[in-house]
TrEMBL record:
InterPro entries: Adenine_glyco, DNA-3mA_glycosylase, DNA_glycosylase. It holds the Pfam family Adenine_glyco. GO terms for molecular function: DNA-3-methyladenine glycosylase activity. One of its GO terms (biological process) is base-excision repair. This is DNA-3-methyladenine glycosylase I. Coiled coil: none annotated.
Length: 200
């Protein structure tokens, strides 16, 4: 009997108590489940939303996404709701305040990268804005993964996006981090076939 995408991906998909099928990573805890159901792979085009997502992806590097989601309210409080204009004006005192804030990830390079990203976001308004830049790298490639192993970790477009953001003044935005961003903000659809967000 031929295998269906769901049986091929059985180890990568989980049926939740609510009867919905999700990738295993999204079923690890309620925080990730809600994030997957409500946010992940949904289009984000507004400036503040994109600046927040890029900043959180920067902080996530080397850590679990669950850790970042748990600290998200604290990040929003510490970084003025990710208002680029406010964060762009952060100075040395703000950096020291953030380094003393145990509720967030206290990494000086990532904090400084977030401030630099805010400054770059404001500067990009003169040439169309952050959203226009990010979404200009939306790929034509359509993904239809049945297993997590079929999902790439980077792409030519994520490499180009990372380079363009670095040229604009962003830091710590590599091609792997940017592919994760592209998935999260709906630029690419890597929902597994069989999941409730991508039925078989």
């Amino acid at each position: 009997m031929a295998q269906t995408p769901l049986t091929r991906a059985a180890s990568d998909l989980v049926v939740g108590p609510d009867g919905l099928i999700r990738p295993r990573w999204a079923a690890a805890n309620r925080l990730l489940q809600d994030y997957y159901d409500d946010e992940w792979s949904e289009p984000v085009r507004d400036e503040r939303g994109l600046f927040e997502r890029i900043s959180l992806e920067i902080f996530q590097s080397g850590l679990s996404w669950s850790t970042i989601l748990a600290k998200r309210p604290a990040f929003r409080s510490a970084f003025a709701g990710f208002d680029p204009e406010v964060v762009a004006d952060f100075g040395d005192e703000d950096i020291e305040r953030l380094m003393a804030d145990a509720a967030i990830v206290r990494n000086r390079r990532k904090i400084e990268a977030t401030i630099a990203g805010a400054q770059a976001t404001v500067d990009l308004r003169a040439t169309g804005g952050l959203s226009a830049l990010v979404w200009s790298f939306r790929p034509a490639t359509k993904y239809a993964p049945a297993t997590l192993a079929e999902i790439p970790t980077r792409s030519p477009e994520s490499e180009a996006l990372a380079a363009a953001l670095r040229a604009a003044g962003f830091r710590h935005v590599g091609p792997v981090t940017m592919f994760a961003l592209m998935e999260a903000i709906g630029m690419v659809n890597t929902n597994l076939i069989g999941s409730h967000k991508r039925p078989a």
